[in-house]
Here is the input.
Amino acid sequence: MEQIKMRVEKRRDLTPTIAEFTLAPVGGESLPEFNPGAHITIETPSGAMRRYSLVNDGSDPKEYVVAIKREPQSRGGSASMHEQAVVGTELNIEHPENDFPLTDVQKYLLIAGGIGITPIYSMARYLDKKGKMLRIIYVSRSAEESAYLDELMKDFEGRIIVHHDDGDPNAVYDFWDDLVTPRATHVFCCGPKPLMEEIKAFSGHWPEGRVHFEDFKPVDVVRQDDVAFEVELKKSGQTVTVPEDRSILEALRDAGFATSSSCESGTCGTCKTRLLEGEADHRDMVLLEEEKGSQIMICVSRAKSGRLVLDL
Ligand code: FES
Here is the structure.
């Protein structure tokens, strides 16, 4: 993949945990154009390669703009961008790619969860310029943690619904009314995996090709040779069987437990749970060696053998 050397031209904090980086080519060469929904892969100062959606206008761009959320437990990509990428830092990037392209229709429903607003914001501005009809639903934990909120409220007044759940799994936005009746509208959704799963579930009866997702292809959560095991939930006094093809998190949800999660690929730290007994097969990128005896990331990790006892 062809690379371009870029320099951080500007950096600004959008929220306490999200920073926007404006990158310009070191050699002053012209940059490849891109369409809304595109992303670039950045070699972050830590050496980890990370994909970030482009926020700016992609026709004849002089720079590439990305907004990066510092994931709470990150020790690689997003943390190193936040800590080490300052104005003047040089970074290699790969040419833009687009796995989330817009279709050309008349009406759009754009759904963003948290940092998933980045491609959605770019799409919204592009569609607005073209005079298309659009609605935006932007869900996040709180106003303080919502990137580009003021700009969106101003530019899309009357066409945007904003919902904050304060991290409470019981206070999430209800998409029923928006999706119960399939329409000619095309839906574009980007956000944490639970949001995308919910939209998939609510829109299962929509004709094929009308509902689109940004999918950063997370790790395979379950593997071919995984086996079922049990988790005992100490606080609630219940035992749940985790089937061979489900994660602990999914099995708990299937059993009716509300659980917080975000990346569902073992990288963000949201689902960290105290492990009281049992030996875990740790598959996350978050826990430190010394934490592995007493903590588990339930979105990806399993039991090495027998059962696990969790502080839930
Ligand atoms: S939900 Fe992100 S690590 Fe589990």
Observations:
- Residues 261-264, 266-271, 284, 286, 297, 299 surround FE2/S2 (inorganic) cluster (CB under 6 Å).
- DSSP finds six helices and 16 strands in the chain.
